[in-house]
Write a structure and sequence with these properties.
Elements: H1 2-75, H2 83-86, H3 92-95, H4 98-120, H5 126-156, E1 160-162, E2 165-167, H6 193-228, H7 233-238
Antiparallel strand pairs: 1-2
Helix pairs in contact: 1-4, 1-6, 4-5, 4-6, 5-6
Length: 242
């Protein structure tokens, strides 16, 4: 009888040890699986963040592109009249079309490709992100061109009818006319052309600075994409777990 009791207790002890051992093995296996999966999750998160950042930058650039183009077009029509453009009596820097070509077309090309990068992750490859760096550099160059043209236009002042002739009366004033509004009365025609040029050129300068910052941010984001790749969230969801 005693032998049977000892045998039963021994069997129960062995069973408990096996069960505890199995649970311990399961926990250990689960922890190892979580540790192996976590770097992949973090890596995918990094890849998705570069694509999302590209989309954010592209959507932020679009309104600034529109503002640049609009400002440059409006500059051709001081006093809301087309006759000055028809007669060629337009401030010289306006003809350089910094807002239209630089802050407009060049930045627009950059923003479209950056948007494409964010939408598709450029098929998830690093070469696509490298191209986004090149296009972002084009955007920086366009914004810089727009800024320089606007700065020169602001420094030279508008072309207007003053002292009986069409001239640029503030060209050698070293921008002192900007702070002395009493000098603006020199320009008889077009009406309020000084305020007109100052407002639009300052807007172009501010817009081009923001464009350059956003494109520079994409260059940094593109470098991160080259290192970690770029994945679209939908592409990641469709990818096999293996």
């Amino acid at each position: 009888m005693l032998g049977l009791l000892l045998t039963s207790e021994y069997t129960n002890s062995i069973t408990e040890i096996d069960v505890n051992g199995d649970l311990s093995s399961l926990k250990t296996g689960r922890n190892r699986a979580e540790e192996s999966v976590q770097p992949l999750v973090n890596n995918h998160s990094d890849k998705m963040s570069t694509a999302k950042c590209s989309k954010f930058i592209a959507f932020s650039l679009y309104p600034f592109v529109f503002i640049s183009i609009l400002c440059n077009i409006v500059l051709f029509f001081p006093d809301g009249s087309v006759k000055y453009a028809q007669q060629g009596l337009i401030t010289e820097e306006v003809k350089y079309m910094g807002g239209l070509l630089g802050g407009g077309i060049m930045v627009l090309i950059s923003s479209i490709y950056i948007h494409f990068t964010g939408d598709n992750g450029c098929c998830g490859n690093r070469f696509g992100m490298f191209l986004s760096i090149a296009f972002a550099a084009v955007g920086v160059a366009g914004a810089f061109y727009s800024f320089i043209v606007a700065l020169i236009g602001l420094n030279s002042g508008p072309l207007c009818y003053a002292d009986g002739e069409w001239t640029t009366p503030f060209k050698h004033s070293n921008t002192s006319y900007l702070a002395d509004s009493s000098l603006w009365a020199k320009c008889v025609e077009p009406k309020n052309v000084v305020q007109f040029n100052i407002g639009l050129f300052l807007t172009l300068m501010a817009t081009s600075c923001l464009q350059a910052l956003l494109c520079a941010a994409q260059i940094i984001n593109g470098l991160a994409g080259c290192m970690f790749g770029a994945y679209n969230e939908n592409k990641l969801d469709e990818a096999p777990l293996s």
